[in-house]
Amino acid sequence: MRLTISHETAYHYEDQVRTSIQYLRLTPPDNQRQQVLQWQLDLPRPVQARRDPFGNILHVLSLEEPHADLLIAARGEVEIDPDLEAEQDSQSPLPFLRSTRLTEADEALRAFAGRHCGEYRDRGALIGLMGALHDHMAYRPGATAVETSAAQAFAGGAGVCQDHAHAFIACARSLQVPARYVSGYLFDNDNQHMASHAWAEAWLDDAWYSFDVTNQLAVPERHLKLAVGLDYLDACPVRGMRRGGGYEQMHANVLVTSGFDQ
């Protein structure tokens, strides 16, 4: 399956921003299940790519002159292997047992994971856990914020894809299964497009397997991966800081289409 992506993020500030820095994980990597055919970033100035500690492709955009607007755009084509269910990895999965503030499992999450998985730590058990989390946490935009933790979203019984991924990761790590956060895109057969997406991966049988709680998908046949990390903060496509600017308005537009339909 060939996916074509167009992703624009526009910022407008009430006052002039004196300086800003943006950490961009907007370039997908080549791996066993996706091959980047073409990709480009449109930025206010050229930026060199580097690798972050998790192996993600990172661009750091630093603007030291005053500005009231900022446009960041990414576009390209990627070929997806819809039949490959898992990804091999030569790096140790053990760092992904470490919890963060966003993925710390409280007693309620630990009990939930234990109740649904029991003594089992296989893919079938984790698929069951994925379904149980989907039933417990309704998809409700606006119910949480980017700083909401897995425990808070779970207690509230609602959230978005970020919260679903964090809750799954918290449960998996409480079972001593390495798990990581994934940011990227998902092609939607019905609507032809979907906003940036997030899901989880767990290390089983010496490979990474996907678990998309929001859509109850355990095979990443329509997923395009951008970045991975311990949580959202490590893998989010755009994350920045600024000096000045006052009130900020941000608008994101994402379009994902499939070559099968062109």
Return Rg in Å.
Answer: 18 Å
Give the helix tally: 5
- Helical percent range? 10-25%
Low-confidence stretches: none
Q: What is the CATH topology of the largest domain?
A: C8orf32 fold
Report the β-strand fraction as a percent range. Answer: 35-45%
Q: What is the CA-CA span between the terminal residues?
A: 12 Å
Named CATH architecture of the largest domain: Roll
What does the overall shape look like?
Answer: globular
CATH class of the largest domain reads Alpha Beta
In sequence order, what are the helices and strands, one letter per element?
Answer: EEEEEEHHEHEHEEEEHEE
Main sheet properties: 7 strands, antiparallel
Classify the secondary structure makeup into a structural class: alpha+beta
* Count of the domains: 2
**Using DSSP, what is the number of strands?**
14
Q: Overall pLDDT, averaged?
A: 94
Core attributes:
262 residues; seven-stranded antiparallel beta sheet; Immunoglobulin-like; C8orf32 fold; alpha+beta; five-stranded antiparallel beta sheet; globular; 2 domains; single chain
What does this structure look like?
The protein is α+β, with helices and mostly antiparallel strands. The chain folds into two domains: 105 residues, Immunoglobulin-like, CATH 2.60.40.2250; 140 residues, C8orf32 fold. It contains five helices and 14 strands. The strands form three sheets. Strands 1, 2, 3, 4, 5, 13 and 14 form a seven-stranded antiparallel β-sheet that branches. Strands 6-11-10-9-12 form a five-stranded antiparallel β-sheet. Strands 7-8 form a two-stranded parallel ribbon. A hairpin with a 2-residue loop joins strand 10 and strand 11. Helix 2 crosses helix 4 and helix 3 crosses helix 4. It is globular, with a radius of gyration of 18 Å. The protein starts with a strand and ends with a strand. The model has no long low-confidence stretch (mean pLDDT 94).
